[in-house]
Amino acid sequence: MTTLHRPAPSPRPYRPRTTRFPQVRPPVTHPAHRVPPDTLARDLALPLGAVGAALLVTALMLTGETVHASAVLALFAALTVAVALRARPVLVPVVALVSWMFYDGFVLHQHSELAFQSQDRMSLLVLLLAGVVGAGCAVVGRAVGRHPAG
């Protein structure tokens, strides 16, 4: 009679059982949440702008240069643009308002009194436009920085 001959099974490589001692995997680490570096500057832009306006008024009063209202308005507009470049876009009207308060109260009226005459309204409009220009330049700069040409 003929017997069927089966091939011998190939030996399996030795592997220790892991049910008794499960393999410990290293903890999964996720990259840390990165805070953009300009966040602190954006948060501090309004207080630093107010300090800058106060220092500008102090310097103008010490030198006696508060009589040239249009030149001083240009200085305050430049300060407003500089602060609006760094501030959050939502805070731009507040930045312009703070600049206007310092300009109107200490340059135009000299006794820290706020008024709303035609010269006051015009200066408020100029400073609001300066803030919008600064914020617009900042938005365009950020958009170009995110999507470089090429």
Keywords:
150 residues, mainly alpha, 4 helices, 59% helix
Uncertain segments of ≥5 residues (pLDDT<50)? none
In whole angstroms, the N-to-C terminal distance is 82 Å
Q: Average pLDDT, to the nearest integer? A: 81
Shape: rod-shaped
The number of helical elements comes to 4
- Structural class from helices and strands? mainly alpha
Beta-strand residue percentage: under 5%
Biggest β-sheet description: none
Fraction of residues in helices? 55-70%
Order of helical and strand elements: HHHH
Question: How would you portray this structure in words?
Answer:
- This protein has helices spanning 39-63, 69-86, 92-108, 118-146.
- Helix content is 59%, strand content 0%.
- The mean pLDDT is 81.
- The chain contains four helices and no strands.
- It is mainly alpha-helical and 150 residues long.
List the helices and strands and how they pair.
Elements: H1 39-63, H2 69-86, H3 92-108, H4 118-146
Helix pairs in contact: 1-2, 1-3, 2-3, 2-4, 3-4
Summarize the structure.
With 150 residues, the protein is mostly helical. It contains four helices and no strands. The protein has helices at residues 39-63, 69-86, 92-108, 118-146.
